[in-house]
Amino acid sequence: QEKQWYQRRVAITAGITIEIKPKACFRTAADKTLTSKYPCCRFCSTIESRHSNGHIRAVTRYCPRDMFSGGCRGVSVAVSRLLDEPLSYLTVHWNGRRVFDEDRRDITAMLAVTGFRDRAEFVAIVTQVLLAPLHQGKTVLAVIEDAQLCNSLSLAELNEVDRIFVDAGLDLDTEIAKWVRGHSELDPELSEMIQHVINFTISVIAQDLSVMISLARTASGIRTSPGPRVSYKNQEYKFKVSVVDVELKSVKKLPMYLKQEQREIGLMIESKKEKSTDCDSALIPLL
Predict the structure, then answer these.
(1) Is 283 left (phi over 0), alpha (psi -120 to 50) or beta?
(2) pTM of the model
(3) Residue 135 confidence class, pLDDT cut points 50, 70, 90
């Protein structure tokens, strides 16, 4: 239901459109209990590993733990660090034309084209939008984080579920479709397994989706149409938020996710031997 609600808020192409991929610091819900022992998030360790191995050209100081902190200061830090090094996690469009991304990194030029008075205004407006209560009092970031943490099982356990269905002569994708439509004829034990797999796919989607923010400046004090608004130093913006890249993943990719996890663990361990990340480079075990 939350997914459908956000999909109805379609981003406009005219004006300012900002795309942010918040990513995730935790693989599963269980990871969140380990942060006191393992302070570094999965994202930061993976970024360092990929940079060390030449897969990306720069290391960003952006950390999803700031983005999902729930506070203005943390989110502001996250947005500011994306401006400093966007990689593939921040893009800005003006009237449908891309004006800022990992290849177009001139912040001054982007601000001039889009009409932001300075960097502080950009950061403040984006932060306010991300922290605005939109759906049942929740921010878009809170909804995304809830989805990221809805899976409590390990990838290995979920891969075992796939094997159980294969051995029973059942196709998981087909059975999930039946379950979603309310036509499932599985016994209670297999039906419960299906629910765990659905939670897994939701979690994976939420870790890699994009938040689209559409902004339109309005004359101060004039309400020509309804809709949420934010402001900075007497400049008001009407905004819309949508979430994209939320297609369900085929469970046939479960073995691929398991191999990817094992590869990332190896890269993180090698990277840990060399140097520390900005968030202390402790490794979060991928449960």
Answers:
(1) beta
(2) 0.80
(3) confident
